User: Which sequence fits this backbone?
């Protein structure tokens, strides 16, 4: 029996520095985990992308493939966007899919793929009026957006703890939608 495939999509927010922890937790739950990074997050990992590819067993993607190239990753059974930055949230909510990461989830949610998103940004960023609109728009499309007690509660500026990002809550939500892998 083949394992179910999870796309873990990480944006350039603090917990992206610890994305290997999210990958490991997903793998411990039986997911074949593919990692997709926004271009900014990929830049953070640039010297160590090989480590992430070795951990996942798949190439780490951050750019759209060229026309005529075959897909490098297996088809996703579920997608988790974590951490979701404020910038990517607002672009996604506005329908802007200018990165592979946002293109995959923008399309995936409308193709019946379960999509969960868990943010990581501070309270000052969250106070921007576009944030509430973007969250509402994503939820209306069927995206499970985990904030507050259900996921990540925004922190005061300069007081975040990216190492303590609650990956387990996001993975619990994915399994609630897609079921636990076999």
Assistant:
């Amino acid at each position: 029996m083949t394992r179910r495939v999870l796309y873990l999509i990480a944006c350039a927010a603090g917990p992206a520095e610890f994305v290997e922890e999210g990958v490991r937790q997903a793998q411990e739950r039986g997911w074949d985990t593919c990692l997709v990074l926004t271009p900014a997050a990929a830049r953070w990992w640039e010297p160590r992308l090989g480590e992430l590819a070795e951990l996942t067993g798949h190439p780490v993607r951050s750019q759209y493939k060229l026309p005529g190239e075959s897909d490098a990753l297996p088809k996703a059974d579920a997608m988790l966007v974590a951490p979701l930055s404020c910038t990517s949230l607002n672009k996604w909510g506005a329908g802007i899919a200018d990165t592979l990461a946002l293109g995959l989830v923008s399309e995936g949610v409308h193709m019946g793929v379960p999509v969960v998103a868990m943010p990581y940004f501070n309270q000052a960023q969250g106070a921007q009026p576009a944030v509430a609109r973007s969250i509402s728009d994503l939820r209306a499309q069927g995206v499970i957006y985990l904030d507050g007690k259900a996921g990540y509660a925004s922190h005061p500026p300069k007081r975040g703890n990216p190492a303590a990002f609650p990956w387990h809550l996001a993975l619990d939500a994915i399994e609630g939608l897609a079921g636990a892998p076999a």
Remarks:
- The longest helix spans residues 129-140.
- The helical segments are 19-28, 39-45, 49-56, 86-93, 100-108, 123-126, 129-140, 167-178.
- The mean pLDDT is 95.
- Strands lie at 5-10, 32-37, 78-84, 115-119, 144-145.
